[in-house]
Amino acid sequence: MLRRAGQSLCHFLLEKNSGAGRSWCSREAKMSRPVQARRLEGIDKNIWVEFVKLAATYSKVNLGQGFPDFPAPEFLTEAFSRALGGGNHMLHQYTRAFGHPPLVKVLAQFFEKLLGRDLDPMTNVMVTVGAYQALFCCFQALVDEGDEVIIIEPFFDCYEPMVKMAGGTPVFVPLRPNPPKDGKLMSSADWQLDPAELASKFSERTKAIVLNSPNNPLGKVFSREELGLIAGLCVKHDVLCISDEVYEWLVYDGKQHIRIASLQGMWERTVIIGSAGKTFSATGWKVGWVVGPDRLLKHLRTVHQNSVYHCATIAQEAVAQGFQRELMLYGKPESYFVQLPKELQQKRDWLVRSLDGVGMKPIIPEGTYFLVADISQFKSDVPDVPNSDEPYDHRFAKWMVKNKGLAAIPLSAFYSEAHKNSYTNFIRFCFAKEEATLKAANDILQKWKQEKTSS
Ligand code: PMP
Q: Pick from 9, 185, 227, 417: CA 20 to 30 A from residue 270's CA?
């Protein structure tokens, strides 16, 4: 009460332009103690802030950030409208804190099918504000001061700061490219872990490994052998697996997404993370989930109940209806989970052709929204900046958006500080876009090629 009165008095005095009021307020505003919590030290920079702004200012075609510019499926948006305007006014109120009952129930049914095990919707599933909050809950709930967490590079960039905020130490291990000898285009499958190098990262300090398959940014879908290698090390060293599977349905060329939790000894130590944003092309809805054993999820619930507590009820209701539809159509041609990857594969192939045509060597992704391309042949296009230690891929991406109007993200942004300088010849494009957007990107690339050949 007193504080309120103080604030409004200050406001009043400022409005009156009173000198006395100003000095009183500015004395209040001055603080000499550090305001930033120590856990934020060194994690304040974020690549997206800079590149999203550049894309908004200069791009004609934005293939940078990972979201579709095509509509979410009608069955989903209709479910949302029904939930919003239908007769059940209780959908405008809080729902169950750990997940709206219809959503956790259908997710449990779905994952029972996928994992071949019985699941309790109330203890083996939790709904979060997108996969982002699911990740945050995992690190806060499972990682202690001094714990090491293995992260496979390149990685979705928030893993590193989230591990640090929990007091943990990230330990990085890169996927190493092995270009095919026959001159063919590289595939994301050609980026592999070195088994000895991976094994050397595990120790008694290792608490968890983060696995992201299908992987953002490369589009790599880890094979059964690769997952077996990781699972074997997790079991041997009693390590947890935080398995980010947000692109689980976006797998191409008949490849299969294998869930590491289904491998021997892994269910008890794995948290599976998913996202309705990627699953139903509705990234703005921010509905995510975790699936896993109660012995892990109960700690995630503690973080959730002491931070976010509830997720938007109507969005959860609509996603539940989306899953109910998909459960009925499971494996059938009408299923969205069958149709969406087919459409995205075609879009991937268009972009592969466009990029290959101008000499930006694409690495063909086996899954996800993303495609990484080799830009090493474009060094002469981009002016050198004297005395700058900015990596080439950052300079290239900035130059490209400013001069060609095409936005993409530098790959080194997905590496740790220690390794980023070894991966500066690549940029990441998002192909989850309308045909017209990809055509406009192709036009830019074709024009660029003509300019290059005529100069
Ligand atoms: N994990 C990965 C690998 C992602 O690419 C993303 C989104 N780009 C997320 C998690 C976050 O997903 P959401 O939008 O559901 O929070």
A: 417
- Residue 129: predicted pLDDT: 98
User: Quick one: CA dihedral 396, 397, 400, 401, positive or negative?
Assistant: negative
CB 278 within 8 A of CB 246: yes
131 lines ligand 1 (CB under 6 A): yes
The per-residue pLDDT for 26 is 53
Atom of ligand 1 nearest to the CA of 216: 3
- Expressed in angstroms and rounded, the spacing between residue 28 Cα and the centre of ligand 1 is 41
Cis preceding-peptide flag for 180 (omega within 30 of 0): no
Residue with tokens 């948006």: 77
What spacing in Å lies between the alpha carbon of 16 and ligand 1's midpoint?
A: 49
Ligand 1 neighbour 216 (Cβ under 6 A): yes
**Cα of 367 from ligand 1 centre, angstroms:** 14
> What is the separation of C-alpha 305 from the centre of its chain, rounded to a whole number of angstroms?
23
74-85 and 313-328 helices cross at what angle (nearest 10)? 140
At 127-174, the pLDDT tens digits run 999 999 999 999 999 999 999 999 999 999 999 999 999 999 999 999
C-beta of 283 in contact with ligand 1 (< 6 A): yes
For residue 270, the SS3 value is strand
Please name every residue paired with 212 in a beta bridge, in sequence order, or none if there are none.
244
Q: pLDDT tens digit string along 81-103?
A: 999 998 899 999 999 999 999 99
pLDDT at residue 74, as a whole number:
98
Q: What is the dihedral of CA 14, 15, 16, 17, to 10 degrees?
A: 50
Distance 240 CA to ligand 1 centre (A): 20
Closest-lying ligand 1 atom to the alpha carbon of residue 368? 5
Rounded distance, CA 254 to CA 91, Å?
Answer: 39
